[in-house]
Amino acid sequence: MDASLRDTPALIVRIEKLRDQLVERFQTIVNLSVADRKDRNVTATAQYQIQTETAALIVTAENAQSLIRQLQEMWLFGQLDTLGDSKAQQQNDEHAKSIAGLLRQLADLQKSTMIAGRTESTFEPAMTNGD
User: Domain coordinates of the chain in residue numbers?
Assistant: First the structure.
């Protein structure tokens, strides 16, 4: 895998570089096509430059497509962390830990009541909202 896809700053630099190249190539083609030419030699030279810039524009677009394909593959196979550690994820983790702790307490309570010889649970959930 390309090393420039391993961290966010390098990836952003690569995307910006591709964007700048696409814009530069396109501007060059537009500038070459606007010039008023009356000499055949100048026109032939401009036409060759336009062909060269068009080929370079196509190569740059193919490089952008390749980057997109690599990012899609990374996303599909889990190598691209699009969520990160967001606040919502952190809150979900905290809630899950607190629920797991409560379930452990419930299991310990039920286990201790069964050991004491009682068959029914003494744990009653707290009533809320007048239920």
Answer: 3-76, 84-131
